[in-house]
């Protein structure tokens, strides 16, 4: 049976071990104790305690880790290039986000890109259909026998009632006014200038009524607006690429910061204390990254 003195010595020894374990645990939360390994044996505190030779040896004991087990480490992220993500976004909005692993963000850009080009196709088809319509109106109601003329020609068809003749509604009369301004003292040059520009043959026209000409103008303006809407799709496509390129750079910076934070959070801290068979003591504090 242990004496009172021996009991006090054992109690003092256990108290010292508990105090050292508590101090090591508190120190572990500061950066300066990020990685330490303390090995304390009986010789380090023999001057403080004395164990009676008749005392029953204390059985070895090992404490459980002081800190909870760390969460499973994330799978290693593959190296990505922000420049490659930028180029992919300029080629196809959403491709850069997919390359960085953000498929949800990429879906939005894919949808917007598809909508832009779908809008382009719809307006292009509408513009061509309306163009064929107003050309057919001119052929039926103005006597035109051609369909492959420039846009300036079809514009003149809508402005002047007839291509030849005199009067303010005649294209020939407008040409002669311009010729007189160009060659005020040379009638022959005026005639040659007019003959060079006056539509003849199957290119000549003469509207049967003002109402039919008005309907032609409306259809032509509608076709022109449709082609303008289609061209606007190119501006939207450029803006979509710029937005995607900026988004990939912001995502890359955010991912880089998150990776640095997770690397610090994955550090593992363990605190182990035990007593050896010969009565010695050990305190081990370990942190890994």
Would you count the extended β strands for me?
2
What is the arithmetic mean of pLDDT? 78
SSE series: HHHHHHHHHEE
Number of helical stretches of at least 4 residues: 9
Termini separation: 48 Å
- Helical proportion, percent range: 55-70%
Name the beta content range: 5-15%
Q: What's the layout of helices and strands?
A:
Layout: H1 4-27, H2 42-45, H3 82-91, H4 95-100, H5 103-141, H6 151-159, H7 171-182, H8 187-197, H9 210-265, E1 268-275, E2 281-288
Antiparallel strand pairs: 1-2
Helix pairs in contact: 3-9, 5-9, 6-9, 7-8
Describe what you observe in this structure.
This protein has nine helices and two strands. It is mainly alpha-helical. Strands 1-2 form a two-stranded antiparallel sheet. A hairpin with a 5-residue loop joins β1 (268-275) and β2 (281-288). The model is unreliable at 25-74 (pLDDT under 50).
